[in-house]
Amino acid sequence: MKKFLIIFAVVALLAHGRQALCAQGKLIIGVIPEYGIEQEVNRYAPLARYLGQKLGIRVGIKFLPNYGALYEELRDGALDAGFMGAFDYCMAHSHAKIEALARQIRPATGGKCTAFTFVRNNSRINSPASMKGRTIALVDPLSTTGYLAQRIYFKKFGIDIDNDVKIFWAGTHQAAISAVLSGQADMGAAKDSVFKTTAYKNVSVNRELRVMNTAPGFPDNVLAINGNIDKTTAGRLKAALLGMSADPGAGGVLRGMGASGFTAASDGDYSALYNMIKKAGINLSTYSYAKISD
């Protein structure tokens, strides 16, 4: 309980206020959960301070419990902006006046990310066809690398991941890895950067887990803004992000995020993903993204 209260106090401080407040000298940015809350605080709190100094306003980071909550708060104007995965962004843009501003660039992969689907090394599971009735640890129904990629992968084998397999919604990529390590799930899914970072810190990941499928080429996390933000603030925010790679004072902030910089983003970056979503049998206008189990 003590640990929770300390984390909550930090998050409450960073996420001061609920309404979009950029017009009042405050900017609230939402973040999807990829790691545990403490690690997310360490990743994004320095960025908030950096952007606040560059923009001359208070910048807060609000950590959302799931991908759907980020989409909803951005849609409803409770957030000025949000760091979103590709699938989450497509959902948000399809339902509201949400604009892609800047995408994260990582040193080894540029502005792209990869989905890993993995099992334990001693597992006899070699394809989705072996997964009927078994449990897979997925991240969130709006996660690109922790659900959409696996839905498409399973479909190639004639398997409906939503009905033929038991889904354990882990909530974060890191938790999905832990679920397979502990035997709570037979298979798991995670973003490549989270898998590699976790493996670097925990040797049992590479020793005990086997990546069975990789699906590369998805746009990496994007900072999307509420379309109601004034153009001046949006332009200054974009310029601050795009200028980070050339700013010596931003080096530590970027390294903490596992990034080398940001690149300009637009909805056109997601044309291939929109087609992929359709091929997966998902209609964004009616898609139910609520978790069906805990």
Outline the secondary-structure elements.
Elements: H1 2-14, E1 26-31, H2 37-55, E2 58-63, H3 67-75, E3 81-84, H4 86-95, E4 98-105, E5 112-120, E6 135-138, H5 144-155, E7 166-169, H6 173-181, E8 187-191, H7 192-201, H8 204-208, E9 209-219, E10 222-226, H9 231-242, H10 251-257, E11 261-264, H11 271-279
Helix pairs in contact: 1-2, 2-10, 3-4
> Strand arrangement, largest sheet?
2-1-3-10-4-11
Count, helices:
11
> Helix share of residues?
25-40%
CATH architecture of the largest domain: 3-Layer(aba) Sandwich
Q: Which ranges are low-confidence, i.e. pLDDT below 50, for 5 or more consecutive residues?
A: 1-21
CATH topology of the largest domain: D-Maltodextrin-Binding Protein, domain 2
Put the structure in a nutshell.
With 294 residues, this protein is α/β, with parallel strands linked by helices. It folds into two domains: 168 residues, D-Maltodextrin-Binding Protein, domain 2 (3-Layer(aba) Sandwich); 105 residues, 3-Layer(aba) Sandwich (D-Maltodextrin-Binding Protein, domain 2). Helices cover 39% and strands 22% of the residues.
Describe the structure.
- Helix 1 runs parallel beside helix 2 and helix 2 packs antiparallel against helix 10.
- With 294 residues, the chain is an alpha/beta fold.
- The chain folds into two domains: 168 residues, D-Maltodextrin-Binding Protein, domain 2, CATH 3.40.190.10; 105 residues, D-Maltodextrin-Binding Protein, domain 2, CATH 3.40.190.
- It starts with a helix and ends in a 15-residue tail after the last helix.
- It is built from eleven helices and eleven strands.
